[in-house]
Amino acid sequence: MNLGDRIREIFKEVASDIEGLRGIIVSTIDGLPVASDIKSTEEQNRIAAMVSSLTILSKKVAPQLEVGKAEDLLIEGEKGKIFCYTLGEEAILALITDKRVNLGMVRMKVPLVKKQLEKLILQ
Q1: Residue 104, pLDDT score
Q2: pTM
């Protein structure tokens, strides 16, 4: 089983635990998709690039605004949410959800998922 397949197995577990999850992607820090449950390759590429840009920008802005080191990024829209988390210095995890997602479940599940993904990606 290759890296992408192992990551997609973790995605399946996350999707079963988080109601309202619409998509999940791991990308490199420079915006290339590593693994995703998003069907369209074009969409994967676009989302990976945007998530990377947003996450890098939040890491630069937070210290300048004196809120400390950015740990994660949450964007709330009228139809859903986007959660972005760094995986070491190499990759980014992004979850795209609808509005009904339970924020507490995301906050509880993500640290475990991050640990699993970092172990796979950073080995």
Answers
A1: 93
A2: 0.91
